[in-house]
Amino acid sequence: MALDQQFSQDDQIIRKNYYYRSIKRFADIIFSLSILLVGFPFFLLFALLVKLSSVGPVFYVQERVGRNFSRFGCIKFRTMHPEAEDILNNLLEENSLLKEEFQKDFKLRNDPRITSIGKFLRRTSLDELPQFFNVLRGEMSVVGPRPIVPEEVERYGEFMEEVNSVRPGITGLWQISGRNNLSYKRRISLDLVYVRQKNIWMDFRIIMRTFFVLLFPIDRGAY
């Protein structure tokens, strides 16, 4: 009898996860199409500003780690100068403190590589608008863990497989809880909280909270 009950519980969990994934995927597609259609004029405006701000492409595509360790190109509006890599290498060679800061989070608070329009796009998170194309392609979700670069995988240690069991998100608990103001350990813990407690209601609350953060961008750690 106990074995039958266990099978029944397992079956309920499987069905619950299936329904959640199906509803979430449908919602991702509808939400992304809505954002891209409604925001199309702004999309064109930001693309023009990026193009006029400096020489180089409008978009920047960076390799990220997706669900089940798959790799994909995460699309953003370009916010850095084309020679950003050379600027960074020279900077880190000359300044040990900045090198330590960069190795900690792979970011710099006062980053000389960022263009003038890039600072605005990053501060408002509008540079991430093109990621809705990643959502439509099934590489990301609207809500999920942070999409990390391959160099960060080992920092997740034993938790990487669990975090990587779902699609990374444009927004998530990390993005509405302080972003780069949080310690790396705290970021990982928030990703784990989401993966272990994920449900439609939680996704909805995160999206609503994201709109609030975007409308009232105090120091949310976006840089």
UniProtKB/TrEMBL annotation:
UniProt name for this protein: Sugar transferases involved in lipopolysaccharide synthesis
Transmembrane segments: 26-50
Class in the EC hierarchy, top level: transferase
InterPro entries in alphabetical order: Bact_transf
Domain Bacterial sugar transferase: start-end pairs: 24-215
Family: Belongs to the bacterial sugar transferase family.
Compartments reported by the entry: Cell membrane
Organism field: Prochlorococcus marinus (strain MIT 9211)
UniProt keyword list: Cell membrane, Membrane, Transferase, Transmembrane, Transmembrane helix
E.C. designation(s): 2.7.8.6
Pfam families found in the cross-reference section: Bac_transf
GO molecular function, one term: undecaprenyl-phosphate galactose phosphotransferase activity
GO cellular component, one term: plasma membrane
